[in-house]
Amino acid sequence: MRIVIFANGTLNDPHQSMDLIRPDDFIIAADGGAIHCLELGLQPNIVIGDFDSLDRENLSRLEASGVELIRHPARKDYTDLELALEHALQIGASQILILGALGNRWDQTLANLLLPASADFSTMDIRLVDGQQEIFLVKGGHRTVIQGKPGDILSLIPLYGDASGITTQGLEYALDEGTLKFGSTRGISNVLLANMAEISCKEGLLVGVLIHSPDPNSHNHPDS
Question: Which of 42, 65, 99, 206 gives 20 to 30 Å between its CA and that of 110?
Fold first, then answer.
């Protein structure tokens, strides 16, 4: 089950966001992320949050359309996006695509980028997309397959300390049981050699950032 979550950050490429949506996607809007949905002509299945970013007119419009509204108090311990992820977990999501998670507030952006690293969400494949950039995690003991095209840029950045036992396939600069040290820039700006690459990591946690080369003839994303 794939769930698409619209967060209340910046949606840099609305056309591309529409291209990513599949007919069978379940759509959750985290509070003001519902405005992105309305502007794109999409009807979310659920809107969740304290609704401080939605005015009464938009709330009435959503409710009249049959959208389920899940309201939380304004004084809460979690962001609206984390609440949306928790709800997605509860209803059985295995794959999550998050749109609009980045923006002008660095505190919110950093928190959103780190949410997929929470142990609470370890069973879900979570990817954040911002324009041509796709952000994901490579976890110790797992193999991650990357879909793109030759020339796409891939950066691997360790979190929580050094990441070791890293093996890559389909990248210009290969690693074979290599180590990326926390705070080092060694993993920045690798390049895909084909439409697919693979990364495995034995110990540690990596943030992967895949920058897709723009296709001037299409808005389609390689994963759409």
Answer: 42
Distance (Å, whole) CA 51 – CA 55: 8
The distance between the two most distant Cα atoms of the chain, rounded to a whole number of Å, is: 56
This prediction has a pTM of 0.89
Is 119 in a helix, a strand, or coil?
helix
Q: Which two tokens mark 197?
A: 């690459």
* 131: Cα separation from own chain's centroid: 11
For the stretch 167-194, pLDDT in tens is 999 999 999 999 999 999 999 999 999 9
Q: Which two tokens stand for residue 36?
A: 């992105």
Could you state, in order of their start, the residue ranges of all structural domains in the chain? 2-130, 136-211
CATH class name, domain 2-130 = alpha beta
Domain 136-211, classified CATH 2.60.120.320, yes or no:
yes
Crossing angle between the packed helical segments 56-64 and 33-40, to the nearest 10 degrees: 60
Other beta carbons less than 10 A from residue 197's beta carbon: 23
Structure tokens, 23: 């007919």
Tell me what pLDDT residue 215 has.
67
CA quadruple 169, 174, 178, 182: dihedral sign: negative
* Residue of 146, 175, 181 whose CA lies nearest to 162: 181
